[in-house]
Amino acid sequence: MRQCGVVMSTDGDRAKVVMQRQSSCGDCKGCKLGSDDMSMEIEAINSINAKIGDRVEIDMEHQNVLAAAFIAYMIPLITLIAGVFIGSVLLDKIGLAQYKEVGSGILGLVLTGISFAVIRLKESSFKANKNFVPIITEITDK
């Protein structure tokens, strides 16, 4: 996935880049949004020593984008479904079948919340893993 943006600040081997949101972003809001709805600020590895104000091209491997999307969306969905299923079976087994719908729904939401909390706690390790961080690959004149 390649996109262009402008370097706003640098810090060691990282740079903050402001980019225009693409229509494929939809309403994800996974990135820090800028001052308007069409710009976003991301942190990227500054492998080419770009300076503030440089227009740069940023790249992230498609498989890494898919892995990040899986972590952000599929793991919480899987925990929601697992929580509902486990809650339903568990409440049947302990004789509280009359509370099966509410109880399994609550357990599903609790497990989903826990999965979001774990993902949030692991965010720093994801940022440290260079597979999940975009890389500045080129300074452009565009």
UniProtKB/TrEMBL annotation:
Q: Is this entry keyworded Mitochondrion?
A: no
PANTHER family linked to this entry: PROTEIN RSEC (PTHR35867)
Q: Kindly indicate whether the keyword Transmembrane belongs to this entry.
A: yes
Q: Name one Pfam family in it.
A: RseC_MucC
Where, by residue number, does the polypeptide cross the bilayer?
65-90, 102-121
Q: What is the lineage of its organism?
A: Bacteria, Bacillati, Bacillota, Clostridia, Peptostreptococcales
Q: Which organism does this record belong to?
A: Alkaliphilus flagellatus
Q: Which UniProt keywords apply?
A: Membrane, Transmembrane, Transmembrane helix
Q: What is this protein called?
A: SoxR reducing system RseC family protein
